[in-house]
Amino acid sequence: MSVTYFKRFRMEIDLVRAALPRVEPPTGYTLLPWSPELLAAHAEIKHASFRDEIDAYVFPCLGNFSGCLKLMDEICRKARFLDDATWLAAFRHPNGEREFCGTISAVLDASNHGAIQNIGVTPAHRGCGIGTALLMETLSSFQHRGLRRAYLEVTAQNVDAVRLYQRIGFRRTRTSYKAVESAASFV
Ligand SMILES: CC(C)(COP(=O)(O)OP(=O)(O)OC[C@H]1O[C@@H](n2cnc3c(N)ncnc32)[C@H](O)[C@@H]1OP(=O)(O)O)[C@@H](O)C(=O)NCCC(=O)NCCS
């Protein structure tokens, strides 16, 4: 069995010094606060966002709905789950139909830093500011709680995500390598 090593960056932002402007979601979109009834919707959007992406190879649970449901369930059961920093993006179609299209969740780590768990936007809704709006809302929730730092981890090959985080003010602080068995197709 072959093993592939994926380079991962930890990226951090100083919430005390960062000037974070208020970012409204684009027209037609809203951000829904966490509620337990939205658990399956978060999992569904996590799956739809990650299933064709490199992170579904790095973390196979992201490649199927049941894995995403289990992951989201684990996140929201954590004692340090930050429900006020967890958001679901929704788009209202002209016919009134509502479509969920983005997810972000967060927990508090042992150092009282905000740890962003997964951010995902479904492919049809990318590039119009949903990812930015989700991140800014989560960072704003961290600031309201008085948290001083926030961080996330990202696969180095995920250049779109790295660029987005850098644009917002995250900086690389650490590089690690995640060993994955039989993922040669993404090398
Ligand atoms: C990474 C991800 C969440 C970004 O979501 P997104 O909604 O496309 O993000 P945004 O639209 O806010 O920003 C993306 C680009 O669109 C541009 N953009 C932002 N607002 C925009 C707007 N109103 N109109 C047009 N473009 C806009 C941004 O400038 C950005 O450009 P950049 O690539 O030069 O930084 C999304 O690509 C995704 O879900 N990827 C798969 C899952 C994944 O890898 N998640 C990250 C795990 S660490």
Write the layout of secondary structure elements.
Layout: E1 3-14, E2 29-33, H1 39-50, H2 55-58, H3 65-77, E3 87-92, E4 98-108, E5 114-121, H4 130-144, E6 149-155, H5 159-168, E7 171-181
Helix pairs in contact: 1-3
Bound molecules: coenzyme A.
What does this molecule look like?
The chain has about 190 residues and is of the alpha+beta class. The protein has one domain (about 5-185): Gcn5-related N-acetyltransferase (GNAT) (Aminopeptidase). The protein is built from 5 helices and 7 strands; from the N terminus they run E-E-H-H-H-E-E-E-H-E-H-E. It has helices spanning about 40-50, 55-60, 65-75, 130-145, 160-170; strands at about 5-15, 30-35, 85-90, 100-110, 115-120, 150-155, 170-180. Helix 4 (about 130-145) links the parallel strand 5 (about 115-120) and strand 6. Helix 1 packs across helix 3 (about 65-75). It is globular and about 50 Å long. The mean pLDDT is about 95. Coenzyme A binds near residues 120, 130, 158 and 167.
Summarize, please.
The protein is α+β, with helices and mostly antiparallel strands and 187 residues long. It has helices at 39-50, 55-58, 65-77, 130-144, 159-168; strands at 3-14, 29-33, 87-92, 98-108, 114-121, 149-155, 171-181.
